[in-house]
Write a structure and sequence with these properties.
This protein folds into two domains: about 150 residues, no CATH class; about 90 residues, no CATH class. The protein contains six helices and three strands. Strands 1-2-3 form a three-stranded antiparallel beta sheet, with no helix packed on it.
Length: about 270
């Protein structure tokens, strides 16, 4: 079987390691799962769980709506996030683009018939005009708008897309791998360097782009006095912030943590 014998192509993989037969096999797998397995299996799960197992716990008048929602969701494969997953797993961008483009093309023609078939089997009536309108509004219009935008960018002398190469040669994905993070792990005291350093190790740089930023905060307000003469209030707040950057050209990541405290003492006039 091709799933057992063929691995997903990796970025930069030698051509002989990823044959045309492998490409055809993987395309067949993604098309088969998206259009021959997923819509019908989701409809089956909807009939099983919503139509039977959880029916006593759901509003009787909304059962059909829940099942219809599952069917519509299953018939529209997620394509945008495929680029993100491919980049995170170091997948081959050309293969990713090919299978996304093919699935989007199939979706234009197959979405309405498959949804209509499964809704009909579920005895749920949805006008065909509504299904075709949804295809036009949510698939055709965005594709046309993207193409017009692309043409305008190219006509203005811009470039579309990035060059997919080795990490040391190209900026790919959400974070550029060409940036230097050599100074991200060392911080000098203020005034140590009189040049243009912003606090990082002199001679180095920290160009890491944000990968993840999280903040947790807690605090309180307490009224010492609240009456006819006004209000006297005190507060303390603590915040923990962590910033993680993408790896740079040399594979060096960057992470910074900031602990912050605030205190306030206020008097409010009556």
């Amino acid at each position: 079987m091709c799933i057992r014998e063929t691995a997903v192509p990796l970025r930069g993989q030698a051509p002989e390691a990823f044959r045309a037969t492998d490409f055809t096999c993987l395309i067949a797998v993604t098309v088969g799962i998206n259009w021959l397995v997923k819509p019908f299996s989701m409809a089956l799960l909807g009939w099983l769980f919503i139509g039977w197992l959880f029916r006593p716990f759901l509003p009787a008048g909304q059962i059909d709506s829940y099942i219809a929602g599952l069917i519509i969701l299953a018939a529209a494969p997620c394509t945008a996030m495929v680029f993100v997953w491919s980049n995170l797993t170091d997948g081959d961008p050309n293969f990713t683009l090919s299978q996304v483009a093919l699935n989007d093309t199939i979706m234009v023609f197959a979405f309405a018939p498959i949804v209509g078939l499964l809704l009909g089997l579920s005895s749920i009536a949805v006008p065909w005009q509504t299904l075709f309108l949804s295809v036009v509004l949510y698939i055709v219009v965005p594709v046309v708008a993207a193409q017009l935008w692309r043409r305008s960018l190219l006509a203005a002398g811009g470039s579309w897309g990035g060059h997919w190469g080795t990490p040391s040669q190209a900026a790919v994905g959400y974070g550029s791998r060409t940036l230097s993070n050599s100074g991200c792990t060392s911080i000098t005291a203020p005034g140590y360097n009189t040049g243009s350093s912003t606090g990082f190790l002199p001679g180095g740089s920290c160009g890491a782009q944000n990968r993840d930023i999280q903040e947790y905060t807690a605090g309180y307000w307490y009224d010492f006095y609240k009456g006819d003469h006004g209000r006297f209030r005190q507060s303390i707040q603590y915040s923990y912030t962590a910033r993680e950057g993408w790896s740079g050209a040399s594979g060096i990541g960057a992470k910074g943590i900031d602990n912050m405290f605030w205190t306030s003492l206020r008097y409010y006039l009556p």
